[in-house]
Design goal:
This protein is α+β, with helices and mostly antiparallel strands. The protein folds into 3 domains: 81 residues, RNA-binding S4 domain (Structural Genomics Hypothetical 15.5 Kd Protein In mrcA-pckA Intergenic Region, Chain A, Roll); 81 residues, Pseudouridine synthase, CATH 3.30.2350.10; 163 residues, Pseudouridine synthase. The protein contains 8 helices and 20 strands. The strands form 5 sheets. Strands 1, 10, 11, 12, 13, 14, 17, 18, 19 and 20 form a 10-stranded mixed β-sheet that branches. The longest helix is centred in the middle third of the chain and has 12 residues.
Amino acid sequence: MRRKTGPKVAASLHITSPGTIVSTSPDVSRLTSHVSPLPPQLTFSVLPPTTERLDRFLADQLALSRTQAARLVADQRVSVNGKAARASRTLERGNRVSVDFPETEPPRTLRPASIALEVVYEDEYLAVINKPAGLVVHPAPGHWDDTLVNALVARGTTLSGGAAGRPGIVHRLDRDTSGLMVVAKTDLAHRRLGAMLASRRITRRYAALCWGHLDQSPTVIEASLGRHQQDRKRVAVTAAGRPSRTDAYVVARFALVDLLRLELHTGRTHQIRVHLSYIGHPVVGDPVYGAGGSRRMSGPQRTAAEALERLAPRQALHAAWLAFRHPITGKPVEFQAEWPADLAPLLVNAAGPRDAVAPTGALAYLRFFEAHG
């Protein structure tokens, strides 16, 4: 078994006066232990050299949802050094941030959206959804009314309270990642599923096509992840990040790519995509972490790789396997989702005539759902 690790470092935080942050690392911890409940107005000074964009920084420091933080900024209730600031602004040491909270904050109405959903399983406590690619999970700036949550509201699904704007959402998938998600329908189920997720008692296995070939199977990737210092929309391996681990098993080896079964031990944003890129085997079709994609190939393989890449409508990553104990009954439950139709031409052509993979049932045919070996 091959183990690949990245840098790790701990962050520390000190609060010296109401609303003032003093940190010894760029990874600033939450302010909520000092400010709870939040006052009508909060002013604090920033001492880290730099921070991520303003809306994300506020969400992290004040324990707000990203939606709540974005609305405060959009309503010009957040100022930096006395001037209204944009959500995309990054903060620097010495900036003075003021936040005016509205006296009453009416909840945003969740509008139903007529979006087809594949419901794999449902009872009175939870539902398991096979999310299609291209669907955002919960409302956020730019996607207030066309998300998985809006689609669940439209079909009349009862949802747990959850975080503001995220009712029922226990865990998330990237917009362009397809596959299985569990959604809570009661608050008790949500609390128990959240605890199970935190203690790693929910098994999540993904199928992915990656460029090149892993040296060993399994390959254990341990590398801390955090926001990219230059591009805050991206995630990077960084010493100041949070510990993260992904186990990668080779299911099938084709001429240019491997089909992998990936098991998460942590659930960081973009974890699989960043980890595979970090070890030099990025997900095929990944527009952000692809690290050159087909251009990584040379010689006769380059032309074949470019042709294969044109068949990838998005990153070739799919949440195919979900297993846990039911939060109410305690009975073990397991769900599987085959390789999605939009990525079928990519997999068929990657396999080539020698392996002759069919467009449907490919994961079962390739023994993806069998025990590790």
